[in-house]
Structures are given as structure tokens and as C-alpha cells.
Amino acid sequence: YEIAKELCRTHPDSYVLHTVAAWLLKEPSDEQYYRQAVELAGHRAFPHAAYGSYLLNHNRPEQALWQFQNAVAIDPNHIFAQTGRLVTLTRTKPAEAEKQARKLTAKWPSNSTFWFDLSRALRKQQKYEQALLILRKAISLPHSERLRHLYQRHLADSLSKNNQYSQAEQTYKAVLKDH
After folding, report:
1. Crossing angle of the two packed helices 112-124 and 79-92, in degrees rounded to 10
2. Smallest Cα–Cα separation from 38: which of 26, 24, 52, 48?
3. Sorting pLDDT into bands at 50, 70 and 90, what band is 98?
4. % of the chain at pLDDT higher than 70
5. Of the candidates 115, 109, 117, the residue with the CA atom closest to the CA atom of residue 68
6. How far apart are CA 73 and CA 90, in angstroms?
């Protein structure tokens, strides 16, 4: 970790090094590296999105949303920024998250993450039937193996919310077996 700090001291104009240092360092005072990366490359989407992710993980959703929105304004095709914005909106403004997720699934219909985020926004609004249908769509699309457990756990929860307890139980058992 000291190497990351030293690289930032010796290369103070590198937004990439500041972003990497921020990811490696975990102390609250290390937030300065995110701020410096944004200051150095405010015209690039990634530093804003990375900082937004940090802010969201530190329970500062309003500030996170601002960073994600800046990133999306710079590059509307930045998937990491779009995903971060949806996650943040789902926590703070689920109806807006639903609206944005629908736009993103229309633009990128094969992106399972956007469908999954749409299902989470619907669940947050207690639209359980719709959420289950959308979640099944997300599961049917290609996605990374690391997301399989998350999707299945949410499927079990959604089945339960739709009073499909037998299927929910089977899915929970499969999730626990695989984990």
C-alpha cells in the first residue's frame, strides 16, 4: 500500500495511479485519491464512476449518484457507471431506477445486469410479479458465473414474495448447496 502512495507522490499527474491507489487503500482518509483522480481527469467517466462506487459503499448515496451521473453524462455507454447509477437509484429512488433500467434494457437487451437491476427496482416498489418475470429474463441471458449465485438467491426471494413457496424452497436449497 505504501508503494501506491509513493507512486502517487512521484507521479502526481496520473489519474490512473490515483484511482488504483484509492482502490487499494481502505482508510477513510484515502478518499483523497479518488478526489484527486476526478480532479486530474474530470473529463473521463471512469474516475467519476470509481469514486461513485466508493461513495455508495460508504453509505453516501446522494454523492455517489452525483458521481455516477457525471460519468454517464461524459460517456453514456459506460456500463460500470450505468450499473452504479441504477444500484444507487434503486436504493434512493426506485421508481426512477425502474424508468432508467427500462431505457437501458431497451438499448442493451442482452445485458443481464440491467435486467437484474430492473427486477431489483421493481421488488423495491413491491411489484413482485413483474420483478419475477424480469428476473427470469436476466437469468435466461448470458451472465458470468459469479453472478449465478446472486441471481438464484434473488430468484428464491422473488418466488417467495409471489407465494410460490415450494419453488422458493427448492431454489434456496440449490443456492445453499452451491455456496
Report:
1. 10
2. 48
3. very high
4. 100
5. 117
6. 19
